[in-house]
Every structure is written in C-alpha cells, then in structure tokens.
Specification:
Chain lengths: 205, 309
C-alpha cells in the first residue's frame, strides 16, 4: 500500500524526505559507480514485475517485491526502491508526491534488511536458499507494514483504526510475497546462481 | 456541533445510505467494465497488468505551464503542493481543489489523465472514508450518529470530516501533478532537476529506469502471451505462485543479461559517466512572477487555513 498526498502531518513528511535522502546517499556511496546505470536498468525490471496482479479470493493484489530487490541488489536496493517509488508516483499516482520520502523509507529500509537477512541465512543448499528467501520476502512485508502503521498513527489517535485495517489487509500479502520470493530464488539458484551470491550485479566477464 | 448525546436515526436511513453506496459502486464498476472491455477489444485482456501510461505525451504545447522555465516551475509547484498538504480545513482544501481544476484548464491538459490519477488513489482514500468515521475516538463535542436497533454501530462525524479533508487534499494535489510533470518532455524535467542540485548520477538513473520500463514491459507481455498460449491461467493457489516465481526469475535473468548488453553498448558509444544535456534554460521576468505568485498563493492558503476558518 502506498501513502497518498495529504495524509501525513508536515513534520512526518519532511522527516521522511530527510531519512530517505540520507539512506539513499549512503546506498549510492556503497555501490560501485560503474554499477549504478545497471542498478537503474534492473529497477525497471522490478517495476514491471510489481505490476503483476495475483488473484486473492474475490479480489487481487499486486506484487511488492521489496524482499527480492534486497536479495538481488544488496546495499544498492535502497536507491533502486527510491527510483521505483518516484516513477510510480509520477506515472500512476500510486503514492503521493509529498509522500515519496516516507514511501521510499517504508519500502527501502525493509529491503536492505531483507538483503542482510538473506545473506546471513542462505547457506549452500537449494532448501536453505528457499527458506532464507521466504523468510526475507515475508519479513520484509511485515517490517514495511509496521512502518506504514507507525507513519499513519503519527497523524494522531484518530488514525489508529486505519492503521489496524492496513495491517489486516496486508496479512495475506505476507504469505504471497514470501512464496513468490522463495520460488523466484529457487529458479535463480538453478538457472543463474551467480545473481544470488554477490552484493551487486556481477561485473562484465 | 452539539454534545447532547448521539443523534439517533431510523434504521431505514442506514439502508438508504448502503443503497446509495451500492449504486455508486455499481456505476463505477460499469464504467470501469466498459473501459476494460474497450481495452480488451484493442488487445489481450490479460495484458492490462502491464499497461503503463506515457509520462509526457502532452510535453509539447504553448500554455503558460508549457512555456514556464522548468526550474522555476518545478520548485514553485512543489512548494505549492507542500503547502497544500499542510491544510486542515475543508474550505481551504476545496479552494485548493478548484485551483487544481483551474491548472488543468490553463495547461490545456486532457482531464481524463488526471481522473485516472484520482482513481488510482480510490482504494486508499476509500479505506479512510469508511474506516475513520467508525473508529475515530469520540471526544467531547463530537456529533455521533447511531441507527436504531444497531447501537454498536457509531458513526463519528468528526472522523468522517477528517477523512473528507484528506481525500479532497489528495485529489487537489493529484490534479497538480499533471501540470507539474506532463507539460515538458521528461528528459527536460530531469535535466532541470539536475540544474536544481539533484546529483547527476541520480538523474541519469531516473532517465534510464524510466526508459527501460517500456522495454521490459514489452518483454513481460511477450512472456505472458507465451504462457497463456500454453494454457496458464492465474488462480488463487500455490501452483500459480510457483509459476509466477519462475516467470519473475526468467524476467530477472533476461533483464540482468540485457542490462549488461545495454551497459556495453553505452560504453562503446563513448559513455563516460556523463549524459549530454540538450535543453537550454533561460528564466525571464514572467517566469519569476508566476513562480513567486504561486508560492505566495500557497502560503496565503496556509495562513487562511490556520487563522481565518
């Protein structure tokens, strides 16, 4: 879910921009400058992937995939997510212009965490990789939703009900995201394992 | 507002309300359904997953927004939007909504694109409109509506008012986004942001990411068509998720490989970390007048919001 314009109090809006700006600057500094154009191109692939809708009972939800971004891009994940949020806001109005900072933090910080968790847990076998990816993919959504609820609640106790409903609405998404992350990692493990072992995109041969 | 206990309405008022909401929902479902059928006639119905609008199809024009110096336009519109997001009264938010519609008219942009932006927020704002009246804690002075026989269902008017203000603000800002972004070629807007101090690397990444969305969208559509030909239909089960995981993996493998080829091609054409910028900027007195008056208007709205109403 993306926070739209007009919801967050002004101090939270500004704090969101400040936090995202600082982490994005760190993320860029941690990435090899030669790799940055590639990170941008990979961002487009994730953007397109996030347009896929998964049926869920009578309705459908679209994929979020911050966990996979973290798993594949490592420290560069935050700048990639930020670009994706900016483009989503510009193209679709999914997430407001003034909420770009808050939305980027909400998705980007969990993506970084998911990347670290995946690297810690992945081990050497296919099974371990899938478990680590499921954990990272699902946990990433849990973190993102917690941040979302906290941001909404920052508006005052009137927003508590909305924050609770937002958490409830995301419970099934946690399952979907963790399954998709596990299956995608299992595919990559068999087809192109070098994508899973490195902090950034592998250099040219 | 009075605090003389809850206002009780007869039960049929609730049915009237629900009936009205149901009618609205049916109406919007019918309109959306017609649009979906129309796009289905144009192509494969399943491909609406990947419909991405063009950002700057109205990039050329002669309206005051098109002729505005991009740097001043971006800064002043952004500051104006920031002011709007701080409003807290319905009256000032409605004024902002009028300004939004006015800007669309002045920029001579098709209203359809802005309505599409508003409909993208419908689910999020709908959640506020439904949940907030029912959950906002009742404070002294609040008007609470209950229905006879259903005393557990309390409708807090203050919560509803808050949700309406949020929605009106969000719509007003959404209306201003098209004049902000769509009235210049995207590459020029990004170049203006570079001039305004956004690091050049980030600007390049923004341009590249935007460009390759359309490339990978094409790729995803082709793969999707292939899967449908082989009989894949999305369902609500684990098997669908497994196949989507494989699909995603394949899309990522192909895009990582393509990324490498793109990078090599850029290097062989002499890319050295800088892009060639082509737009020249020249700010005139008129550009400044427009910018300063817009920001002054935004601050004026904020002052009105805090001290007048």
């Amino acid at each position: 879910m993306h926070i739209s314009d007009g919801v967050l109090p002004t101090p939270v809006t500004l704090a969101g921009f400040a936090a995202s700006f600082a982490i994005a600057a760190w993320s860029v500094r941690k990435t090899d400058p030669d790799q940055l154009p590639k990170v941008a191109v990979v961002t487009s692939a994730f953007f397109v992937a996030s347009l896929i809708h998964v049926p869920m009972g009578p309705t459908s939800v679209h994929l979020l995939l911050p966990g996979l971004v973290g798993i594949l891009l490592g420290n560069a994940a935050f700048i990639s997510i930020t670009l994706g949020i900016v483009l989503q806001s510009f193209l679709f109005q999914f997430g407001g212009i003034t909420a770009i900072g808050a939305n980027a933090f909400m998705m980007g910080a969990p993506a970084l965490t998911a990347g670290w968790v995946f690297r810690l847990l992945k081990g050497a076998t296919l099974g371990r990789h899938m478990v680590a990816a499921a954990f990272a993919g699902g946990g990433c959504v849990v973190l993102a939703v917690s941040i979302l609820a906290a941001l909404l609640y920052a508006g005052g106790e009137d927003f508590l009900g909305v924050a609770k409903i937002a958490i409830l609405a995301h419970l099934p998404v946690i399952g979907i995201e963790s399954a998709v992350a596990a299956f995608t990692v299992s595919f990559l493990y068999k087809v192109k394992p070098d994508l899973l072992g490195l902090d950034a995109i592998p250099p040219s041969p | 507002m009075n605090s003389n206990g809850p206002v009780e309405l007869p039960l049929y008022a609730l049915f009237l309300l629900l009936g009205g909401l149901g009618g609205l929902w049916l109406l919007s479902a019918l309109t959306v359904g017609r649009q979906a059928r129309r796009s289905a006639a144009a192509g494969d119905e399943s491909e609406r997953d990947w419909s991405v609008p063009t950002l700057d199809s109205e990039g050329r024009g002669t309206s005051p927004f098109h002729r505005w110096d991009l740097r001043i336009k971006i800064v002043s519109l952004f500051l104006f939007i920031l002011c709007l997001s701080g409003l807290s009264q319905l009256q000032t938010a409605s004024l902002a909504l009028i300004v939004g519609f006015g800007s669309i008219a002045v920029a001579r942009l098709p209203l359809r694109r802005s309505l599409r932006r508003i409909s993208a927020m419908a689910a999020f704002l709908g959640m506020f409109l439904v949940v907030m009246p029912l959950t906002a804690p009742v404070k002294a002075g609040d008007t609470v509506i209950v229905f006879e026989h259903l005393h557990w269902l309390t409708f807090n008017v203050r919560g509803f008012h808050l949700a309406v203000v949020i929605s009106v603000k969000a719509c007003a800002i959404a209306l201003l986004v098209e004049p902000l972004i769509a009235t210049a070629p995207f590459s020029s807007s990004v170049q203006a942001m570079a001039r305004l101090g956004l690091p050049e690397t980030i600007c390049q990444m923004l341009l590249l990411a935007h460009r390759y969305i359309y490339v990978f969208q094409h790729e995803a559509q082709r793969m999707n068509r292939g899967m449908r030909v082989r009989g894949f239909r999305k369902r609500f089960d684990l098997e669908t998720l497994r196949i989507l995981g494989n699909f995603l993996g394949m899309l990522l493998v192909r895009s990582f490989e393509r990324t490498q080829r793109v990078h090599d091609a850029m290097l062989s054409r002499g890319y050295d970390g800088r892009l060639m910028w082509t737009t020249a900027f020249r700010a005139t007195g008129m550009d400044w007048v427009k910018g300063v008056s817009l920001v002054a208007g935004g601050i004026g709205l904020l002052v009105l919001d805090r001290f007048w109403f």
